[in-house]
Write a structure and sequence with these properties.
heterodimer; A: 248 residues; Fumarate Reductase Iron-sulfur Protein, Chain B, domain 2; two-stranded antiparallel sheet; 9 helices; 7 strands; elongated; B: 572 residues; alpha/beta; FAD/NAD(P)-binding domain; 3 domains; 5-stranded parallel beta sheet; 5-stranded mixed beta sheet; 36% helix; 19% strand; binds flavin-adenine dinucleotide; binds FE2/S2 (inorganic) cluster
Chain lengths: 248, 572
């Protein structure tokens, strides 16, 4: 296939050298079948080895390669160059501190992930000898969608609440906590409701729905946040009526 | 300044095997403290990309004997039968554990876990979570591991060296990718779980991180790499990218068709008999190459391919069982498998070989363990059966974790100043690489030459001359690596430096693959020679060991552990 030329305007930043982010342009020959990530890798290999970006699977499942492309959050290994013009702007994901070039700081997110206790909580752990739980296809369906998150962080960079309130638990973490709450094998609802009712959690969400629009895996975190809100209210209300541990 | 941290054990890698090992270690010993070092965040590990499933006996019509025999036969009788026996017995327990930890396995109507057919397996024993099995397993393991504060993660840190003092491993040295500084991790046992090395080839299902680091780390310290000549080609990769289309498609009934629209595995004798599309990978990959050579391939914009046809399966089944396959085809080859056949060709997928370990995951170096794809416990022999390796990560990851922590508790601490000396020297080496100017070799240049040579010499079919050329070439490239030129001397997130370190590892591993291959004068499993097309048990029923010795590879051999199944002709 014949190549054509495109210009990539890439935001660069090395904390040891740059006071502030700067932009650098690269004009390269591209294969029209390439994804944005292919172009970045080509630049790194053949033009400027100092360009830094994260990637691994190049099949839209490891969640490493999220960036802003032409101003929008994008999974760059999935984003076709053909959908962009002759000039393509690539910048680090919005709403995150930048480590270097296109690499952003994820430590905050990992802390948030842990806060929602994303593991099966049971009063009594099941022994291996007891075999697997029975879970009907319908029960499985309940949480399936919310278990598809690849932690690519596109939703955080699209979220207007995260932009103003960096401590906001955020769409992916809430969706994950909610996923466990919906799992028929789990009994940790109450513990997670306490997290959800706390500061910077589900009630901070302004339901802008931006998160679900950018999600490359159709997880629909906005729906998760909304459902979690609803359940947090119910849980809070019933806590006055039913004593803790009173349901099984 | 060199920072020093200390834990009971140090695990290198946060994929399926590493996470399982870490959980096993803290569960086995309530006081254990575990360092888990990973060059990417654990949920980015390439286990995430596995699609089709994980094998373990689950149904009434199945038993350990059958899973064992399928695995032995699949391995072309090079698997160690004691290891295989232990594996098949533990497999259901491990997958059940994962179910308790939240893995969303697909279900039958009655709520039991569903299983699907897979290549070389005689019944449905592959557990699945649609076609995102690795993704769900990895996230379930990672999320479960967050419960344990005693698993201390060191994310985005790249291990560059094992610390060996007085004949035992005492820890590792790692580069903190984000900060650019070096750190010494002291531990009385180390487990390598760094995954495979598909990136030594140009066309592979493997992600960017699969560069054989753990194999190179162990090899440099004198530990043997075993059976490196056995490289699995998966029959169905997407042309262009090499992205995998899972064998689960064929498990769900997909057909392989040639340019004439024939199901060639049935129309022509390719040795897979009645199994047809559910034959083992080595045989089907060869069948595809033979179809292409016979002029029965399909011309496409990416060159010759064959077709994987799912159109008769129907949209509903595809959406419930193979949704990611559909998504991948739409994004990467612009084909909707509900309506059109998928273009595919054989693609480098998995390393049967790896760091030589025993059934406990122990290497010949005291304190050093390995598990997962980087290890070779001889479960897979000359050809792995699809869906055995995710289970392998769990079964042998757990066992390595338990044995490593027991070893650590029984061993005394190291001479710290000797460890520190090694770490200081290693820091100096990395520092000089970072700033290396004036060399003449480019990373991308050497990598491309390695790729070309590996594909030519160590492909689906092999011959003496081309293997010998690849041995010479990889040795030459390894020597030229000394003249590498780096342009980025910055400290923070220097991915050029990481790529340079990975290339150094890959060149060692590539040479070991080529040397091992060139000395096996027979065809067995994935090692198929045109000039020696049959298996020769008389002379070659042994494991190849490749040692790093005085600046080059040296080969040795090790007996295969046989058992109740005597080698016989491998016919399906
Ligand atoms: C596309 C694809 C599909 C597959 N499908 C299946 C399937 O359906 N069923 C099946 O059984 N098998 C499948 N396999 C094989 C299986 O997925 C792998 O063999 C297995 O997941 C490997 O797991 P691992 O833990 O050994 O390594 P990985 O998951 O690759 O993890 C390696 C870890 O080591 C770390 N690491 C590596 N080097 C360093 C270093 N120098 N310093 C620090 N950390 C390091 C990485 O960061 C990572 O955390 C598939 C493989 C591929 C590529
Ligand atoms: S590289 Fe893995 S999601 Fe893009």
């Amino acid at each position: 296939m014949s190549g054509s030329k495109k210009t990539f305007v890439i935001t660069r930043f090395d904390p040891d050298r740059d006071e502030a982010p700067r932009q650098q342009s690269y004009e390269i020959e591209v294969d029209p079948r390439w994804k944005v990530l292919d172009a970045l890798n080509h630049i790194k290999d053949e033009v400027d080895p100092s360009l830094s970006h994260r990637w691994s699977c190049r099949m839209a499942v490891c969640g490493s390669c999220g960036m802003m492309v032409d101003g929008k959050p994008s999974l760059t290994c999935k984003d076709s160059l053909a959908d962009h013009g002759d000039t393509v702007e690539v910048a680090p994901l919005a709403n995150f501190p930048v480590v270097r070039d296109l690499v952003v700081e994820l430590e905050g997110f990992l802390d948030k992930l842990k806060q929602v206790k994303p593991w099966i909580i049971r009063a009594k752990e099941r022994a291996v000898e007891e075999g697997t739980h029975r879970q009907s296809p319908a029960e499985h369906q309940e949480f399936k969608q919310f278990s598809m998150c690849i932690n690519c962080m596109l939703c955080y960079s699209a979220c207007p609440v995260v932009a103003n309130e960096p401590d906001f638990l955020g769409p992916a973490a809430i969706a994950l906590g909610h996923r466990y709450n919906l799992d028929s094998r789990d009994e940790g609802d109450h513990e997670r409701q306490e997290v959800f009712r706390g500061e910077g959690s589900v009630f901070s969400c302004s339901y802008a729905n931006e998160c679900s629009e950018v999600c490359p895996k159709n997880v629909d975190p906005a729906a998760a946040v909304n459902q979690a809100k609803f359940r947090a209210v119910i849980d809070w209300a019933t806590s006055f009526v039913v004593p803790r541990g009173g349901e099984g | 300044m060199l920072e020093i941290v200390e834990h009971d054990i140090v695990i290198v890698g946060g994929g399926g095997a590493g996470l399982r090992a870490a959980i096993a270690a803290v569960e086995a010993d309530p006081a254990a403290s575990v360092a888990m070092i990973s060059k990417v965040y654990p949920m980015r590990s390439h286990t995430v990309s596995a699609e089709g499933g994980a094998a373990a006996v689950a149904r009434e019509d199945d038993n350990f004997e059958m899973h064992g025999y399928d695995t032995v036969k699949g391995s072309d009788f090079l698997g160690d039968q004691d290891v295989i026996q232990y594996f098949v017995e533990q497999a259901p327990r491990e997958l059940t554990r994962l179910e308790h930890w939240g893995c969303p396995w697909s279900r039958n109507e009655d709520g039991s876990v569903a299983t699907r057919a897979f290549g070389g397996m005689s019944t449905k024993r592959t557990w699945y979570a649609a076609d995102k099995v690795g993704f769900h397993m990895l996230h379930a393991l990672f999320q479960h591991s967050l419960r344990f504060d005693r698993i201390v993660r060191y994310d985005e840190q790249f291990v560059t060296k094992l610390v060996v003092v007085d004949g035992a491993v005492r820890g590792v040295v790692a580069l903190d990718v984000r900060e650019g500084n070096m750190r010494l991790f002291l531990g009385r046992a180390v487990i390598l779980t760094t995954g495979g090395a598909g990136k030594i080839f140009p066309f592979t299902t493997n992600g960017n991180i699969k560069t054989g680091d753990g194999m190179a780390l162990a090899y440099r310290e004198g530990v043997a790499l075993k059976d490196m000549e056995f490289v699995q080609y998966h029959p169905t990769g997407l042309p262009g990218t090499g992205i995998l289309i899972t064998e689960g498609t064929r498990g769900e009934g997909a057909y392989l068709k040639n340019g004439r629209g024939e199901r060639f595995l049935i129309e022509y004798d390719h040795g897979v008999g009645h199994k047809a599309e559910l034959g083992p990978r080595d045989m089907i990959s060869r069948a595809i190459i033979r179809e292409m050579e016979a002029g029965r391939g399909v011309e496409s914009e990416w060159g010759l391919v064959v077709h994987l046809d799912l159109t008769h399966i129907g949209e509903e089944r595809i959406m419930s069982k193979l949704p990611m396959v559909r998504e991948l085809c739409q994004i990467y080859v612009h084909v909707d498998p509900v309506h059109e056949p998928i273009p595919v060709r054989p693609v480098v997928h998995y390393m049967m070989g790896g760091v030589d370990v025993d059934i406990d995951g122990a290497t010949s170096l005291p304190g050093l363990y390995a598990a997962g794809e980087t290890a070779c416990a001889s479960l897979n022999g000359a050809n792995r059966l699809g869906s055995n390796s995710l289970t392998e990560c769990l079964v042998f990851g757990a066992r390595a974790g338990q044995h490593a922590i027991a070893f650590a508790k029984g061993s005394s601490g190291a001479n710290q100043s000797a460890c520190q000396d090694i770490a200081e020297q290693e820091s100096a080496r990395i520092e000089s690489l970072r700033a290396r100017k004036g060399g003449s070799e480019r990373i991308a240049g050497l990598r491309a030459e390695m790729h070309h040579s590996m594909e030519t010499g160590c492909g689906v079919y092999r011959e003496q001359d081309s293997m010998d050329d690849t041995v010479r070439k990889t040795t030459e490239l390894r020597e030229r690596y000394a003249a590498l030129k780096l342009e980025d001397d910055s400290r923070v997130f220097n991915t050029e430096l990481i790529a340079a370190l990975e290339l150094g590892n890959m060149l060692l591993v590539a040479e070991a693959v080529a040397v091992s291959a060139s000395h096996r004068h027979e065809s067995r499993g994935a090692h198929a020679r045109r000039d020696q097309p049959t298996r020769d048990d008389q002379n070659f029923l042994y494991h190849t060991l490749c040692h790093w010795d005085s600046g080059g590879p040296r080969l040795d051999r090790k007996d295969v552990t046989l058992g109740k199944w005597e080698p016989e002709e491998r016919k399906y």
